[in-house]
Design goal:
This protein is an alpha/beta fold and 456 residues long. It has helices spanning 2-14, 21-37, 39-50, 54-74, 77-84, 112-126, 140-152, 167-170, 210-222, 242-257, 265-269, 297-304, 319-328, 383-386, 392-402, 419-454, and strands at residues 97-99, 102-105, 129-133, 158-161, 174-177, 190-193, 201-204, 234-238, 270-272, 289-294, 313-316, 334-336, 367-369. The chain folds into two domains: 2-81 and 98-194, Aldehyde Dehydrogenase, Chain A, domain 1 (3-Layer(aba) Sandwich), CATH 3.40.605.10; 201-344, Aldehyde Dehydrogenase, Chain A, domain 2 (3-Layer(aba) Sandwich), CATH 3.40.309.10. Helix content is 45%, strand content 11%. The strands form three sheets. Strands 9-10-8-7-11-12 form a six-stranded parallel β-sheet, with helices on both faces. It is flat and about 120 Å long.
Length: 456
C-alpha cells in the first residue's frame, strides 16, 4: 500500500501538482479547517499520549493552528506573479527561489502533531509535495494525524506512510528529520536536522530578579511533561542570590503541584548538584531541574561552555551582564530575562537556520536558490564581448584594472591629525603644559624681583 502512495506523490511532483499558488492556498485552508473541526480529538489524543493537562494540550493545538495561519497569510498572489513575470519583461531575478520537489518528514514521536503539521505547512507554502512517515504505534495521535493528512489534502501531492520509503525514493527527497531517525548512510537530496541532544542553560546572576527567574525556569521544566527540548536543563545561580532563588523555586514547584500533592515532590524535582555531577553533561528529559551555585560571571561561563553549543542560553541578569554572558557562552540563541512560551512547543529548530519564536519551519527551508539573470543589448559583460579569455591584450588590461589598490580604511586625508597624533597632543597638553606655564611664571617672578632690588 505504501508503494502505491509513493508512486502517486512521485507522479504529482513530476507534474508540479503542489506548485500552483491557488492550490497551495486551498491546501492550507483545508488543513486548517480540518484541525479546527476536529480539535477536540487532537486535544484528547495529546492528553492520552503525552501525560499533559487539557490546558497544555489545547495550547499545542492552538500553536499548530497559529503556524498554519502564518503560512497561509504569507502567500501573496500579486507578489508571486510579479516574481514569475520578471524574466518575461526582461528583468533579472537574482533572489528567485525554487521549491524542493518532495519533502520527506520524520516527525518526533513525542510531539507528533506539532512536528508533523508545522513541517507540512511550510512545505505546502513553498510548493513541495510531502510524504510523512508515521509508524504503527499504540499512540493515539498517530492515527489522528494520519486521518487529517489523508482526509484533508490532495493525495497526489501529500500522503502518510508507515515504514521507511525505499532507498530509490529517498534519493530524490529532502528529508526533515529533527531527531535524526534516518540512517546517515542513506542517500538523500538533503537533510533538515536538529541537534536534539544539546542541553540548555539558565544563568541567574546577582543582578537578576531571582524570584521571577525561578518562576520562568520552573514552568519551562514542568510543563508538557518536562519533555520540551527547550526547557531549562541546567541552572547556574550566583551564590549571592542562591538562597532567594531556591526559596522561590520551592514555592513555584509547590504551587504547580498544589500544596497537598507537593508533599515530598520538591526534593525529587529539584537537584542541587555540584559541578562534577554527571547530570550537568546530560540533556534532561523529565521533570527534573539541576541547580549549581557559581561565584561569578566568569565561573558561570566556564561551567556553561562545553564541546558543543548550548541549544539556548537564558540569561537572567542586568543588560550589561547579560551581554557579557552572551558574548562568551556559545549558544544557538540567547534570551534575556524571559523564556518564550512558543519556544517550548515542538522539536528543536533545524541546524543552519536562526531560531525564531514565531515559526519552527519556514518556507525558505523547503526552497533552493535558482536566480535568473538577463543580458541587455550592448552588455559588455558577455563572454563573446570581452574576449578576455582568448585575447592576451584584453586579459592584460582586465588584470591591470583588477589590481587597482583598495580604498583607504577610513583614515583621514594627508595632513589631518590622526588618532595617535591627537593622543600625543593631548598628553602634552596634560603633562607638559603645566610645567611650561610654571617655568614662565617663575622666570617672570625672578625678573621682577631683580628689578625691584637693583632699580629701586
Amino acid at each position: 500500500m505504501d508503494a502505491a502512495l509513493l508512486r502517486r506523490v512521485e507522479t504529482g511532483a513530476i507534474e508540479g501538482r503542489a506548485r500552483n499558488m491557488r492550490g497551495r492556498q486551498v491546501q492550507l485552508r483545508r488543513l486548517f479547517d480540518y484541525l479546527c473541526e476536529h480539535r477536540d480529538a487532537f486535544v484528547e489524543a495529546d492528553q492520552q499520549d503525552g501525560d499533559v493537562s487539557r490546558g497544555e494540550a489545547q495550547t499545542i493545538v492552538a500553536a499548530v493552528l497559529a503556524e498554519i495561519r502564518r503560512h497561509y497569510d504569507a502567500l501573496d498572489l500579486q507578489k508571486e506573479l510579479a516574481q514569475d513575470n520578471r524574466l518575461r519583461t526582461g528583468q533579472p531575478a537574482p533572489d528567485r527561489q525554487h521549491p524542493i520537489a518532495i519533502a520527506y518528514v520524520l516527525p518526533p514521536l513525542h510531539d507528533l502533531l506539532f512536528g508533523t503539521v508545522t513541517a507540512l505547512a511550510a512545505a505546502i507554502e513553498a510548493g513541495s509535495c510531502c510524504v510523512i512517515e508515521i509508524p504503527n504505534t499504540t499512540r493515539a495521535m498517530g492515527a489522528v494525524v494520519r486521518d487529517a493528512v489523508l482526509g484533508a489534502l490532495d493525495p497526489e501531492a501529500y500522503t502518510v506512510i508507515r515504514t521507511h520509503a525505499p532507498a530509490a525514493f529517498l534519493a530524490q527527497c529532502y528529508v526533515v528529520d529533527p531527531e535524526q531517525r534516518l540512517d546517515a548512510s542513506v542517500a538523500t537530496v538533503g537533510r533538515l536536522v536538529s541537534h536534539a541532544d544539546e542541553p540548555t542553560v539558565a544563568i541567574v546572576d546577582r543582578t537578576a530578579d531571582a524570584a521571577q527567574a525561578a518562576k520562568d525556569i520552573v514552568c519551562s521544566r514542568l510543563v508538557f511533561a518536562g519533555r520540551s527540548p527547550y526547557a531549562v536543563d541546567h541552572v547556574l545561580v550566583n551564590e549571592f542570590v542562591a538562597d532567594e532563588f531556591a526559596e522561590a523555586v520551592r514555592a513555584k514547584v509547590e504551587a504547580f503541584y498544589g500544596s497537598n500533592a507537593a508533599e515530598g515532590v520538591v526534593d525529587s524535582v529539584v537537584v542541587h548538584a555540584d559541578r562534577t555531577n554527571a547530570l550537568l553533561k546530560q540533556k534532561i528529559t523529565s521533570k527534573k531541574l539541576v541547580i549549581v551555585r557559581v561565584t561569578s560571571l566568569d565561573d558561570a561561563i566556564d561551567l556553561a561552555n562545553g564541546p558543543t553549543p548550548r541549544a539556548a542560553l537564558y540569561a537572567f541578569a542586568a543588560n550589561e551582564e547579560a551581554r557579557y554572558l552572551s558574548q562568551h557562552i556559545v549558544a544557538r540563541a540567547t534570551f534575556v530575562n524571559y523564556i518564550p512560551s512558543k519556544l517550548l512547543v515542538g522539536p528543536m529548530y533545524p541546524v543552519g537556520y536562526p531560531i525564531q519564536t514565531e515559526m519552527r519551519y519556514t518556507r525558505a527551508m523547503f526552497e533552493r536558490p535558482s536566480p535568473q539573470f538577463v543580458s541587455t543589448v550592448g552588455d559588455r559583460r558577455t563572454i563573446a564581448t570581452t574576449n578576455s579569455t582568448v585575447d592576451p591584450a584584453a586579459a592584460s588590461k582586465l588584470l591591470l584594472r583588477a589590481a587597482n589598490p583598495l580604498k583607504p580604511m577610513g583614515l583621514p586625508p594627508a595632513g589631518a591629525w590622526g588618532f595617535f597624533d591627537q593622543g600625543i597632543i593631548l598628553g602634552a597638553s596634560v603633562y607638559l603644559l603645566p610645567i611650561f606655564v610654571g617655568s614662565v611664571v617663575a622666570v617672570v617672578q625672578t625678573i621682577r624681583l631683580a628689578l625691584n632690588k637693583y632699580v629701586l
